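With this grant's support, we have settled on a layout for protein records. One resulting record is reproduced below.
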Amino acid sequence: MSLAAEAFVSQIAAAEPWPENATLFQPLKDDQILLSDHASSLAVQAYLRMCNLPVQVVCRSNAEYMSPSGKVPFIHVGNQVVSELGPIVQFTKAKGHSLSDGLDEVQKAEMKAYMELVNNMLLTAELYIQWCDENTAMEITRPRFSSPYPWPLSHILAYQKQWEIRRKMKAIGWAGKTLEQVYEDVSQCCQALSQRLGTQPYFFNKQPTELDALVFGHLFTILTTQLTSNELGEKVKNYSNLLSFCRRIEQNYFEDHDKDSLASSGSRFSKGPSLI
């Protein structure tokens, strides 16, 4: 299909209303999903709920390989498949659903800058802890990641993924960091988010944006995830307004829904209590 034809199809799809059977795909909750993937999935779920767009969460052991970008989560809406929060935000905006239309250009630029901060710091820290901290990788990450597959495929895929992430860390200058330095990066990121949030209910006052969904997905998952150490969650707990922020979104957007979408993502890696 030509680029012009693809653009035409996309325009037609954008004009169609949001269906009731929209689906979000993620790895298996109980045995497989990792901290970073669960955070990203929860961010998308929060965003869609803030937009009042229904979506059914479906867990597949091969979700990563089903995704057009190789990353999870992804959504299947009509005949369209879109992965990751940024493209999903653009997709819903094309359908007339946006959380940030009320912001001016300066605020939109600020929102994007803080979203980059979260992705560059929190998401990268999650990936580092999962795959570069050997205790976490050995006790939690590799067993969970490889759990759906038979040996020796399980062994091969886990080490292939670990090599991929460690190569990424080397490329962005994180390979030489210690675990304590990574925790300090997380603390600094949380401090910046805490200062921007202040006493407001959301980052841009009374209405949530995609930034709120992204921050919630990562912070809530960090707070409700059991790792080999509590240090990561403790960095977030130092900021009371961020804890209140997470409780607020949980209560406003998840309290009356299936809480399996939140804390019961299973086993040692992603299981934890609700914040309410």
Q: What stands out?
A: The chain has twelve helices and four strands. Strands lie at 23-26, 56-59, 74-77, 80-83. The radius of gyration is 18 Å. Confidence is low (pLDDT under 50) at residues 263-276.
